[in-house]
Amino acid sequence: MSTSPRLTDEDLDRLIKARAPKPYKPGEFELYVNRLVSPAQVDRFLQAAGQPGNGDAKQPAVDLPIRRLGADLMLDETGSIRGTDTAREIPPDYRIGIGDELLVTLWGAVSGEIRVTVDRNGRITIPRVGPVLVAGVRYADLSDTISAPVSKVFRNFKVSASLGRLRYIRIYVTGYTAQPGAYSVSSLSTVLTGLMRAGGPSAAGSFRNIELRRQGQTVARFDLYSLLLQGDQSADRPLQANDVLYVGPVGPQVAVLGSINKPAVLEIKSGETVSDALAMVGGLSTVADRTRVATERLTERLGRRLIEFNLPADGKQPLENGDVMRVFSSISAVLPQNKQFKHVRIDGEVNRPGEYILPPNATLQDALQAAGGLTADAYVFGTEFTRESVRVAQQENYDRALRDLETEFTRATSTQRAISADEAAAQQARAAGVTRLIERMRAVRPNGRLVLQMSQKSPSLPVLRIEDGDRLAIPALPNTVSVFGSVFNAGSYLYRDGSSIDDVMKLAGGATRGADTASTFVLRANGSVVSARQESGWFGGNTFAGLPAVPGDTVFVPEELDKTTFTQSMKEWTQILYQFGLGAAALQAIRK
């Protein structure tokens, strides 16, 4: 029994390996759009593309955030083009051809199973029956076609015929495709599977202008967007031997970025509009600003021109080649303060502590009212009010002050000269101490507290509009005052009405001998500071000690830092006089 030669699975594997999948290669406009979104990602992509071995399908790929619509259909999980046919169910109108393998099963009065291949004459040979012409027969009619000649020999039987291995046909993929050439594909292949074998359109190829040519005639035009966007497979026709797939040049391209469901680079046809482009990318996202679309128009030769389309009024505006459309997010846009609803948190001595959403022009009084008002134990003067914008400003100023301190310290250290080994060691010790101090200061983070200017007996908070993220903590009335620093017995003490700062100091035993009493300060419960230097009289009198203390005060007495012992001073003067004596002796020797 003679059969026509056909491609085996091993032959097909060799053909696929000979055409190893290549990595995805974007076009210039596609790279430009990706640079607008993520320049660093584009640099990594180009770097990976230039590495040896990157064409290997097993090489991990670096993805671009934005691709041409339809490119993902041609790529596998490694970012390389697909290199195999896609199996599908045999349709009823499939025509049996030379090289197809048939599996014929008979049962009843006669039983048997034979596997035969359609020869070059379009026939199969059945034992005791003879040759049967099957080429050109529809797959749905195959069993009846074989049953007719078998019934002339046998009675009381049934026949079932199915396809085994399919024949392979040769097609040609030409034009602007990733890998043009001749391909052996399954006889079930369609236009789409043929394109995938060739890697699909290249960066210069069209996804919307693909022609199926047969015997010199264009028998179908395929727009891949119809399949991708509407699921229309009507143009995805089965291929026949010697068919030619021609991929035309890419048409005008636009990009749609921002708050949309699938950002992409689109190929547009003449007359397609802003609304059409938005529909191709799945429409606007849930949080998109639905009133406008900003468009960067590259056709303006004098520079990039920005055009804003108002939606939906300008939805019918046509697009131009190179347009980059941006849809903005409605939640990322920062509204003016007088239009923002405020999210605040209120803790402490209020009737309903918690988080609240308040109207745009709400004040501190409105926040307290929302929290049910103050309790009987509320200490309004000690209210801690923190604000995020204040914290950010405090952190910036604090970091700037630390940098200035480090610069000044470095300058002072570089200009110091030690006159002895002991002094050099002392300078190193001071330098190490300052370095540790700066490191500890760097670990401190401002909390954004805003000092509310009000008196100690004020019954309510000042009138102040709140901002989003504000936090309000109202403590209970304290009954203590605290003293820390260079005193004999630091700690907290019961507050007594009418007490002064001097009375509070006496509770702690007063200042020690090494205290810097001129720099003593009081941190009030509302966050304000009163210092001894601030309250000094015009002629040197000090009214600081007589200031009345208030509940929650913290008095701090610093240590005197700018002092030296008598022994250290005498040692330094001895060194100076010794050097002076050597200099005087030298002058006497020169004079003689």
Throw out a few tags for this protein:
592 residues, alpha+beta, five-stranded mixed β-sheet, 12 helices, 26% helix, elongated, disordered N terminus
Report on the architecture of this protein.
With 592 residues, the protein is of the alpha+beta class. The protein has helices spanning 9-18, 28-37, 39-49, 142-150, 191-197, 224-230, 274-280, 364-370, 388-415, 421-443, 501-507, 566-591; strands spanning 101-108, 112-117, 123-126, 130-133, 157-163, 168-175, 181-186, 205-214, 217-222, 244-249, 253-258, 264-267, 292-297, 305-310, 324-327, 342-348, 354-358, 384-386, 471-474, 480-485, 491-494, 521-523, 529-531, 554-557. The strands form six sheets. It has a five-stranded mixed beta sheet, with helices on one face. The chain has a five-stranded mixed beta sheet with strand order 12-11-15-13-14, with helices on both faces. β8 (205-214) and β9 (217-222) form a beta hairpin. α2 crosses α3 and α9 packs antiparallel against α10. The model is unreliable at 1-5, 52-60, 77-81 and 537-541 (pLDDT under 50).
State the shape. Answer: elongated
Instruction: Average the pLDDT over all residues and give the rounded result.
Output: 83
Radius of gyration: 44 Å
β-strand number: 24
Beta-strand content: 15-25%
Order of strands, main sheet, comes to: 7-6-10-8-9
